Amino acid sequence: MVAGVSRAADIPIVTELDSLDGLLPSALEIHLYRIVQELLNNLVKHSQAATARVAARRRARQLILTVEDDGRGFDAGTLVPQRERPGLGLTDIVERVGLLGGTARCDSRPAAGTRWTIEIPLTTAASA
Question: 95: domain CATH number?
Answer without folding.
Answer: 3.30.565.10
